[in-house]
Fold this sequence. Notes:
- By secondary structure, the protein is an alpha+beta fold.
- The longest helix is centred in the N-terminal third of the chain and has 22 residues.
- It is built from 15 helices and 21 strands.
- The protein is 38% helix and 23% strand.
- The protein is globular.
- It comes from Symbiobacterium thermophilum (strain DSM 24528 / JCM 14929 / IAM 14863 / T).
- One of its GO terms (cellular component) is outer membrane-bounded periplasmic space.
Amino acid sequence: xxxxxxxxxxxxxxxxxxxxxxxxxxxxxxxxxxxxxxxxxxxxxxxxxxxxxxxxxxxxxxxxxxxxxxxxxxxxxxxxxxxxxxxxxxxxxxxxxxxxxxxxxxxxxxxxxxxxxxxxxxxxxxxxxxxxxxxxxxxxxxxxxxxxxxxxxxxxxxxxxxxxxxxxxxxxxxxxxxxxxxxxxxxxxxxxxxxxxxxxxxxxxxxxxxxxxxxxxxxxxxxxxxxxxxxxxxxxxxxxxxxxxxxxxxxxxxxxxxxxxxxxxxxxxxxxxxxxxxxxxxxxxxxxxxxxxxxxxxxxxxxxxxxxxxxxxxxxxxxxxxxxxxxxxxxxxxxxxxxxxxxxxxxxxxxxxxxxxxxxxxxxxxxxxxxxxxxxxxxxxxxxxxxxxxxxxxxxxxxxxxxxxxxxxxxxxxxxxxxxxxxxxxxxxxxxxxxxxxxxxxxxxxxxxxxxxxxxxxxxxxxxx
Length: 465
């Protein structure tokens, strides 16, 4: 089935490309030549006014690209966008798990581009970068307040070239530069291992062109290793090629049954399974980051009861985009349809509700907030600030009271912490002590192996099957 889908996808792109080629003149003009002429004249008039009178002039290429992006923004659809040639290639590479760069997953936290985690065996991992590190500059260009896209443009590059990153590590309270040599990186779409009692675990992180092949190969190896039940982790899968999701979904949808309905402006298409069920009781882990093609797969499992969804409500992206090549090497990613699950459930802006709702474990929120002390604490002091001190010392493994009184065991814990961190060995908590304590707590929280409550729930469910 997947070959047919890829051919269909390619044909639709070809048809769209031919339409785009005509769009530059006759196709639009034939439908409304007066309106096209007026709009074109207005655009050029604005450009010439800016070019002649603006203090900095106007760059024609930048002006026209801005006009294109502005026009697409006016649709109010965040998934329809213009991709310049470089962005287009980066998009294709990222979907298929092919990267040239240092190998990190990024997110924006406040004004900072923050490393979620380095990719296994990547240059970033070899350089010692870790989760929570902030990339504040690349080759001397500040990235504070900038987008992830700009960060990617500066960090990515040809294999063998070097980039100097300025890293801020909050848990150590320091900044440092690190030089990393870029490399070609392929990120596998699957990660799998055996758990306990014949339960296999398979994380599917995306739907590149090789995702289905990697999925079925992993399942075969897990079965060979003795797996009789499966945890399928889609919690951080934000989508990819629809064809790959449909091919994998055939493992959970009986032959002849619909996997997905696609509603376009002109027609209603149905995609039916031509496969056979996998035959493994499956628990599918989902979260608010499970989106798009991942929701097609999760929805298929839930529709036909061939597995159970465990976790939290999914993202709710139920639209399909196609890529339309442009003559200049860029593309328009345009929303062409909305999809429904095989049981005709709407996903867009709704998401999927798990069969078993399990929230992820959160470490104590108050310990994630740095301790603030408005006074120098010492023996005999009483208060909530002393209690906060005690709780943080206890988290770090120091034996202390937890009653808000600075005495006895608390005094000994403070002295031991000061000794361990090169501070003055006096029973006093001053600014230097608080800074060291906050850095130690942040490091502990970042490195801790917190319980995975959702995976634990999936294992309990499968043991009962």
